[in-house]
Amino acid sequence: MFQxxxxxxxxxxxxxxxxxxxxxxxxxxxxxxxxxxxxxxDRRALPLGEDTFxxxxxxxxxxxxKQLDIPIPPPNDYPPCLQPFFCRAIWRSTLDQFExxxxxxxxxxxxxxxxxxxxxxxxxxxxxxxxLWFLGNTTRRQExxxxxxxxxxxxxxxxxxxxxxxxxxxxxxxxxxxxSEQTLTxxxxxxxxSGSAPAAFGIDFGVLDTGETALVEANDGFSLGAYQVEGAxxxxxxxxxxxxxxxxxxxxxxxxxxx
Length: 259
Hints:
Blueprint: E1 4-8, H1 17-28, E2 32-36, H2 38-42, E3 52-55, H3 58-67, E4 90-94, H4 95-104, E5 110-114, E6 124-126, E7 143-148, E8 152-161, E9 164-173, H5 181-193, E10 200-208, E11 213-220, H6 231-246
Helix pairs in contact: 1-6
């Protein structure tokens, strides 16, 4: 049981929606809340331990894991077990390889985004060499994900705890275009039974202009954006995943599952 919680705030004192949601819930549950900054994480100034919960942006969470000797889970945006739910070609490459492909002429538009958690650029669709300016001085050794460009009619974040869908949060497109419940159930069950899913996570699905419900991407539950999800549910996702990560402390456990 956590005795206190550390929630991140910006250096100027601003607090994100996610931290505000969690602060309200944990305060109502009687937990002691303390606010911290990235600078404190960098200095290892927080007394983190088995009885403390921490939340924040990705850099802060990675810093906390390093302090606690928790192996940082690698990204797993497109779990191989969910390939039947991609509904489009998705492949891994580097910017160098992709740039050469663009100069050679793209047969169709391609969506590209960084494959690592440190985002060197924002994902976007490329159609011709004219789009390469967007990459600027980004190293061409950057690992990337590429996928056929598709049209999403609607997009949703699905929150899952211990294999159970606990909330579905619409965040883009038409809210009157719902996901296929059957497809969603099959995908979540497949992911959880594969052994590669974390105890709690968010997984984004959308409806294509073809009418198919398809995976957008998977997201780990330790640093997860919130849209209009209920605060208590969102908080429970983070608490569950952080509890799981703490069990991997100093254990050499395989944390490749997740994210």
